[in-house]
Specification:
The complex is a heterodimer of chains A (448) and B (337). Chain A contains 14 helices and eight strands. With 448 residues, chain A is mainly α. In chain A, the strands form four sheets. Chain A has a two-stranded antiparallel sheet with strand order 1-2. A two-stranded antiparallel ribbon of chain A has the order 3-6. The longest helix of chain A has 39 residues. Chain A is globular. Chain A starts with 6 loop residues before the first helix and ends in an 8-residue tail after the last helix. In chain A, 51% of the residues are buried. Chain B has 337 residues and is mainly α. In chain B, 81% of the residues lie in helices and 4% in strands. Chain B is built from 13 helices and four strands. In chain B, strand 1 and strand 2 form a beta hairpin. Classes of the chains: A mainly alpha (448), B mainly alpha (337). Chains A and B meet through helix 2, helix 3 and helix 13 of A and helix 2, helix 3, helix 4 and helix 12 of B.
Amino acid sequence: MFFEYDPVLYSRILTSVTLAFHVIFATLGVGIPLMIAIAEWMGIKRNDPHYTLMARRWARGFVVTVAVGVVTGTAIGLQLSLLWPNFMQAAGHTIGLPMFMEVFAFFFEAIFLGIYLYTWDRFKSKMKHFLLIIPVVIGATASAFFITTVNSFMNAPQGFTLVDGVLTDVSPLAAMFNPATPTKISHVIITCYLTAAFVLGAIAAFHILRGNKHVYHKKALHLTMVTGAIFAVATAVIGDFSGKYLHEYQPEKLAAAEWHFETETEAPLILGGFLTEDHEIKYALEIPYALSILAGGSTDTEVIGLNEFPEEELPPLFVHYLFDLMVFIGMYLAAVAVLFTFLNWTKKWNGFSRPLLWAIVAGGPLSMLAIQSGWFFAEIGRQPWIINQVMTVEEGATTSQHVDIMLYVFIVLYAVLGATTVTVLRRMFKSNPVEHELEERGIHHIAK
Amino acid sequence: MSYEVIGITVLWFFLYGYLIVASVDFGAGFFSYYTKRTNKNHIIHNIIQRYLSPVWEVTNVFLVFFFIGIVGFFPSTAYYYGTALLIPGSIAIILLAVRGSYYAFATYGAKESRMYNFLYGATGLLIPASLTTVLTISEGGYITVENGNVRLLYGELFGSLYSWSVVILAIVSVLFISASFLTYYASRANDKGALDLLRKYALTWSLPAISMGVIVFFLLSKRNYEHYQNMLDIWWVFGISLIAFAAATYLIFKRRNFGTAFIMVMVQYFTAFFGYGASHLPYILYPYLTIYDGFTNETMAVWLIAAFIGGLLMLIPSLYLLMKLFLFDADYIEGKK
């Protein structure tokens, strides 16, 4: 329709559409169980029914997002074989293990989530019910762990020998625990937590801005922002390690992210700006030495430039914008969360001032945007490879004739699912506000 | 037993697990919609809702398990089936997506919607139909491979009596399995009204289910004679299946031991399914792919089997807890918890 039919191109678009939609729900799916667990724990520890109710309400909204996460996850699981049959044939030999284990983790989570949701008032001891969310948190984080090792393998493949195009001498553990694994996994998991904290925090902040004075929302905001501050600082630290990983193992990705052409020491970090056709950088902010420090921890680290690589093996250079967007938002979230925590801790200033609340509200969607741009950077940044230096995207794709029709059908599907999810979630919480539910459950007088 | 046979047996078990739990789920969706249309929904609504709500997510996992597992154990299946099944596979994904999410929307979204109910009911019958495409094409003759290019022959698929019979077999089996399980569940809940209605459904669908099974059995002789011969060699397996079916319907008809009756239905499908699978071997896709030439390397096989055992050690107690809380807890089923 818009392009000449090319199954590779259409497969790429369809995969990115599915993954971009899935990752919204997957990120929440990994992060929110932890937030629910923390809230329920606070409820028990402080004997404060507000926190217990918070866990309950979050869990209720969470199920709806889980449902969409499960079905889009099933979609991408099948689509991998449908759109990338050659890749899956090769990958099955090396990373079948983590994929298999991911399903186990998902199974584990699914079982306990079902139990958790339907046993709120069933056990006498609150602790018993709290214990049921622990396997959900473990299962959610473990599935992120396993599936990210698969993605790490695609970036830093190892654990096999290639003999005439055939994978031999396979070591599944070596394939799983490749050089990209530590930084990638920690970055993915911590940013899921951070995003979940900010999305839930944005909801609380929004309620307060709308004039809702109930202490429930203040507690929710405080809980999410304190945890958010911790996750944001951790994200920054891990981001630094990721830079060092890229320098060591995927220098072309780092160079593309930073528009770094000449190999040199004392390399500057480039923020913002845009690139002309003859590779001139304009309107950018240059921080001297910063790239060398990011890559190797000292100003005399030599950073390899794009000119060292053959042109056909370079990723597209627009990944710089994605990289910057991700980093900027990350810093913004850290600043907002730390500021809120600090203001509340000193008690001298007002942490609930309108500008700060609006900044937190903006943090919700922005954190999701950062997740998207981060993933797009990571994936487009390793083009043209599907398995870095082993198999190109072209070699991995299907040869089927109908990928274009499927692309349109799936776009419609995701649009409908997305719209209904928003409608259903809004209706769920609008028709049953906190005050109403507090009254219904007879929670009036509480400590503090 | 060789690694190949262990691998396919493990996967077949999961597919069987999916066959049972998904049938209950799909059938429940259809009955729920059908009774709404005939104004009988109040009779069975609670039974269905109380069973499905905590387990719907688990159902999905069985399927994911199977198709991730098969790529792990038999990577070449990704190449053949993946390329050929782009359209039927995508349709199945879409139906599963619509069904799964709209179930959650309807159940947790707090608003009754006709549209949600219709989608939920209709997809319950369309999904088994689209998924059986895989079993059908595994018999051979529906796929061509030219210069390494795998193509599905749609004309052949839609024009063949065999493929349509398999679709009908799948649908009537879903309704039969589901109704016999829900009958048992209703009897546990002491819900007389629901029990009567569901028992009627179970009996209604029992004959079509068994007849279609027999018809497909004989139609297979035209489609894939080799496979049919292999099935005749183990005819006694299918004999057990028939006896189990007879026992199940007898018990349901006599209003006795609904639990045993459902176990008999499970035995009926277990023997038929494993008999079908065993006689299909060594082929995964006739005549292109056997379990031996599409198998993963030995190291991976050992790891997968180890992971599988580890996973089961974790899953079985969890599944037991789930069943204890929601399936065998009389107070919960009756709606007191």
